[in-house]
Amino acid sequence: MIPFDYQRADRADGAVAAVGVRPAAAFLGGGTNLVDHLKLGVAEPELLVDVTRLPFDGIDTLPDGGVRVGATVRNSDLAAEAIVRQRYPVLSQALLSGASGQLRNLATTGGNLLQRTRCPYFQDVTTPCNKREPGQGCSARGGYTRYHAILGASEHCVATHPSDMAVALTALDATVHVTGPNGQRDIPVTELHRLPGDEPHRDTVLEHGDLITAVDLPELPMAARSRYRKVRDRASYAFALVSVAAALDVEDGTVREARIALGGVAHKPWRANTAEQALRGAPATEQSFREAAEAELAEAQPVRDNAFKVPMARNTLVATLRDLAGEEAR
Amino acid sequence: MTTAEESMLRANAIGTPLTRLDGTEKVTGTAPYAVEHPVDSPAHLHPLQAAIALGRATGIDTSAAEAEPGVLAVLTHANAPRLASTGNGELEILQSGEVGYRGQFLGGVIAETPEIARRAADLIRVHYERYEHDVELRADRDDLYKPEQVNPAFDTDTAQGDADGALASAAVTLDATYSTPMEHNNPMEPHATIACWTDGELTLHDSTQGVYWTQAAVAPLFELDQQQVRVISPHVGGGFGSKGIPHPNVVLAAMAARLVPGRPVKFPLTRQQMFSVVGYRTPTIQHVRLGADEQGRLSAITLDVVEQTAKVKEFAEQTAIPTRTMYAAPHRRTSHRLAALDTPVPTWMRAPGECPGMFGPEVAMDEMALACGLDPIEFRVRNEPETDPESGLPFSSRNLVACLREGARRFGWHDRDPRPGTRRHGEWLVGTGVAASTYPVFAMPGSQATIRATPDGRYAVRIGAVDIGTGTWTALTQIAADALEVSVGEVDLEIGSTTLPTASGAGGSSGINSWGSPIVAAARTLRARLDEHGGTVPAEGVEATEGMPDNPHTSQYAMHSFGAQFAEVWVNADTGEVSVPRLLGIFAAGRIINARTGRSQLLGGMTMGLSMALHEESVLDPRFGHVVNHDLAEYHIATNADVGSLEVDWLDEHDPYVNPMGSKGIGELGITGTAAAITNAAYHATGIRVRELPLHPDKFLR
Amino acid sequence: MRLSFTVNGRQCEADDVWEGESLLYVLRERLGLPGSKNACEQGECGSCTVYLDGVPACACLVAAGQAAGREVGTVEGLAEGDGLGAVQESFVEAGAVQCGFCTPGLLVATDDLVNRVPHPSDAEIRESLAGNLCRCTGYEKIMDAVRLAADRRASSEASRSGKTDA
């Protein structure tokens, strides 16, 4: 661990300025990922700017019916918020399926979105990794890849994004508010995270000094019937092998609208556009669900250890849609 | 001459659920673990570990590390103390730049704070000459070898009759290969040491399963007399075998402390470091063949085991041992073959031998029962031996059948439909399974106990035993009280230090047997001496010391504990997720000294067995030679949420031959057979027979 | 830096603290409170669980600088008067302690659970405590201890409110 400086920010503009001017500076949120990376030598910042006491800890209803979640709202508080549990259960469930109570009490909304991959080669500075140091090579290719991507990977990186919350936000079409050295902007969460391509060191489209201030959940009545299903190797306190965030709007046995995102399958939360498209107007049957899932996964390219993720993702998606359709029928 | 019956201790405190005597200290956070002992101005050590699996460090540049403020010394093979050659390639570190496995210690930084030590260690640059390494265990390797014996001193191979011939003519046969992966002990307290040299003598506050075992290993390395090494360990945060014999971390701490004489050096390992330096359970490949007649009577049993050891030091896991005892068959064979690899050294992990060795064969028994058209309990009952199948000795007590029957009754086994894949609860496929448990009765030689009675009515019982969480503090106090015929409140037990009489370590579930027996002997001598004083304690007190008494029955009887484990398993039809809502274990292990701590030991063993069944797997990357999933986020052990209804009970088993307490040792029995019971239940649920642990969801996906 | 914060209800100062060291290190090495354990230093086991502003958190992942001005509660603060607190007592009585290394973190997590949820179901207990790994007990006796602690907490609440009514 290198000896970094530490500052606590009281204002967002001050935090952005402090980080913006020093290339080796970083924001510190709940610390559940970054403090670990400091110890592992994966992150070596010269300056950490603690943003956890910025005034972004509110959960507020917006005039258009949406909900604004401040970037420093704790995962546990967001999961417990009544409006989230009622209107966006998929988000509450995703949050509660992540990590442990002790970590959810520390982790923030902004920090959770910016979690880095759990690829064990990324986290071990003694093994080459293009994400940690571009050009070193990817140790995961040809190595242990049980938790790795089946969609959208590149020859340079086959890592997955570990967040559960981000998968739910992706299905919900949330919007991320960012303030940075060049002012403020909004980014659809579906465009926040990147595929690795030939720049695997870049997890997101954010630039240095960009600070997430809030996440907006759009007004989305169908999300009241939504679900997060996470399949993992251990009953709790484990990262997803695959996960599904889904909302389904069915009328008279026909799917009107579906919102689906997959976790554990790609370098970013994977919005299942193909499956959604296939489902619109289709009968809400097991067969439609299966065909939609297979269409989404048609391009899957498993690596050494994760061929199972294709049927697992398919089955989990089908099961989740079946549950939602059943709920709808009741 | 007293008979076995007459020499048995009368139980008064024994058998009661006395509350753990170290409980209050532990729930208030005041029980001192190794690095928590208060010491003056400690220095902190962070290790330098090899980043290659085989080769030589040709240059170690420590200049940047030495220049860091707060660094006291940098240790490498260039300035490390020379160690005496004791033939222990694991412990003889830093004697050259040679690297025998990835993660091996090459040195370390001693600094004023742990953060400085860690940071400075990162600044050390090592240049390597790499050799081609070899870390892959496969059954088809052409260089497998036969070790002289297997842990601790069993025959490597055994054979009786003509197994191949019997298999060729058997009406029903099974030929299957099972495997268990590399697993790491992962006690909750990482291995940790404070080392301090004063006047040429070494003091170690060490997290160890045996203070005298550590002393015995460390003293000769530094060419010290045994008594020049003092080892203190009153509380240990779990061990499960990996803290049995010391590992290189203890030696590195002692070496580092040599560079800063008079200053205590603290060296707690990180969780990641534990995956390369403190041992693990070898992966095993178990080839089982069974032959039976039409009535389901076994005519042949063979088990051929392939596993790994390290080139730097041999460890041969005794995986085939339980097969030599479990079931009757006239024709039988067992064997162990090893691949010597450029890996860290395997070691004891809870029930070495019995734990992996009760997986393959107990799944095979389930498969064979089905092939014979028999219920798996009935099949085991039919093959129950009258005497120990290989030695021919009578059992001092053997209640496997009673455990199976009692377990079946309690579990509700009688109306079980044997057809697999036919029960469903919503999206879950439901099944039940059974397997047997067994563990030998070990007694370690060499322990001594001293008991001193004083006129104030106190009895000081002193023995260099340890408590790694098993309940030694409490159980030995109960034994001493009954042997002295006093109440537990009158006994002051001292354990956990080499300033106390010599003792074996906590291993092989032998602690109560090996420590309790000399305590009983010393108490009897003391009482005889008190009688000489007319029953009163003279002002100067009365003392008695006794060693481990000879047990003539050891050569006359086969001594083992047994049990039966029942599992209900649900497998998700969509996702393959495996859940174990119900586990029941019924055991016969002699007299249980403390019902409260004893039950918890068995429950804990079964849960570790569940963890083994569902989760545990250390993944070695053959390209690098290291365990990739080397932390508790990626190496899964069972959480609370993985456990369902868990029930343990035992039969009242009377065994006067094992020791005066009539106890058999229960630290390891509980983990044996659990994984097989769960695997058999998963088959019953799904119709999918998994022969390779762990039972990850993908193995049940359709 | 000089770190000022509250520990177990008492104002504490620690000097020469580097903001990047962990709260766990500050508690154990600088304040002489070794109750909270370091078993993974990565938030993957729960052995270092402390109260941070009233909610359980992994002290190993809190940078010392982040603890400034906040309220921390450790296992050392769970005692009631001179005796054991109800949760501590329940763990001893139920036999939920073996090696004891996970115990301090579990006690804090359990204290929080029984304060928040008067009568937790088994499923709630198991999930709430899933972040506290135990390698010895098999969790069964921990379940007994939590149920016992919850009952006692509930009945002491009841008798307290009973007195208020009277």
TrEMBL record, chain A:
PANTHER family: OXIDOREDUCTASE, XANTHINE DEHYDROGENASE SUBUNIT C-RELATED. It comes from Halopolyspora algeriensis. InterPro entries: CO_DH_flav_C, CO_DH_flav_C_dom_sf, Diverse_Substr_Oxidored, FAD-bd_PCMH, FAD-bd_PCMH-like_sf, FAD-bd_PCMH_sub1, FAD-bd_PCMH_sub2, Mopterin_DH_FAD-bd. Gene3D superfamilies: 3.30.465.10, CO dehydrogenase flavoprotein, C-terminal domain, Uridine Diphospho-n-acetylenolpyruvylglucosamine Reductase, domain 2. This is Xanthine dehydrogenase YagS FAD-binding subunit. Keywords: Oxidoreductase. Residues 1-222 form the FAD-binding PCMH-type domain. GO terms for molecular function: FAD binding; oxidoreductase activity. It comes from the Bacteria. It holds the Pfam family CO_deh_flav_C.
Automatic annotation (TrEMBL), chain B:
One of its GO terms (molecular function) is oxidoreductase activity. InterPro entries: Ald_Oxase/Xan_DH_a/b, Ald_Oxase/Xan_DH_a/b_sf, Ald_Oxase/xanthine_DH-like, AldOxase/xan_DH_MoCoBD1, AldOxase/xan_DH_MoCoBD2, AldOxase/xan_DH_Mopterin-bd_sf. Pfam families: Ald_Xan_dh_C (PF01315), MoCoBD_1 (PF02738), MoCoBD_2 (PF20256). Transmembrane segments: none annotated. Residues 28-132 form the Aldehyde oxidase/xanthine dehydrogenase a/b hammerhead domain. Keywords: Molybdenum, Oxidoreductase. PANTHER family: ALDEHYDE OXIDASE 1-RELATED, XANTHINE DEHYDROGENASE. This is Xanthine dehydrogenase molybdenum binding subunit apoprotein.
UniProtKB/TrEMBL annotation, chain C:
Keywords: 2Fe-2S, Iron, Iron-sulfur, Metal-binding, Oxidoreductase. InterPro entries: 2Fe-2S-bd, 2Fe-2S-bd_dom_sf, 2Fe-2S_ferredoxin-like_sf, 2Fe-2S_ferredoxin-type, 2Fe2S_fd_BS, Beta-grasp_dom_sf, Diverse_Oxidoreductases. Pfam families: Fer2, Fer2_2. One of its GO terms (molecular function) is metal ion binding. Signal peptide: none annotated. Residues 1-78 form the 2Fe-2S ferredoxin-type domain. This is Carbon-monoxide dehydrogenase small subunit. It comes from Halopolyspora algeriensis.
